[in-house]
Amino acid sequence: MSKAVFPGSFDPITLGHTDIIERALPLFEEIILAIGTNSNKNYMFSLEERLHFLKETFKNEPKITVTTYKGLTVDFCKKQNAGFLLRGLRNAQDLEFEKAIGQTNYKMSGIDTLFFITSSGKSHISSTVVRDVIRNNGDYEFMVPDVVRK
Questions:
Q1: What is the chain's pLDDT, residue by residue, as a tens digit (150 residues)?
Q2: For this structure, is 52 an active site residue?
Q3: Is 59 in the active site?
Q4: Does the annotation count 90 as an active-site position?
Q5: 125 is in an annotated binding site
Q6: What CATH number does residue 111 fall under?
Q7: Which residues are substrate-binding (predicted)?
Q8: Total domain count for the chain?
């Protein structure tokens, strides 16, 4: 069974994330959306809210599982029998950062990382940008799924 993990903090999930996930669906029997938990990080949205956002966004997609994990992503992948990691690339900086992590993960575990280039018109979207716009009372609704919009 081909299984992939798309890890992230999803604080919050964006249309950039959904773009990558939807385009990867035909390639796998299951995609696990895995929220990494880090007690040292301050999140805008609680873990419960982020789980809700993901589950609600993909409630009609049986190939998607939503969960949380602690520790190394590759260890989580092994426990899930997932042979692939999914990552999105918006720009050259993402490529350099994700390439180093992907190479390290492969060296540690043999798990390959598949990179998807974000679709046209979505490369400006990031959770960091969304959080900044929310904090400053700006219009963020065009960057997130319906469930995140308040």
A1: 699 999 999 999 999 999 999 999 999 999 999 999 877 788 999 999 999 999 999 999 999 999 999 999 999 999 999 999 999 999 899 899 999 999 999 999 999 999 999 998 898 999 999 999 999 999 999 999 999 987
A2: no
A3: no
A4: yes
A5: yes
A6: 3.40.50.620
A7: 9, 41, 73, 87
A8: 1
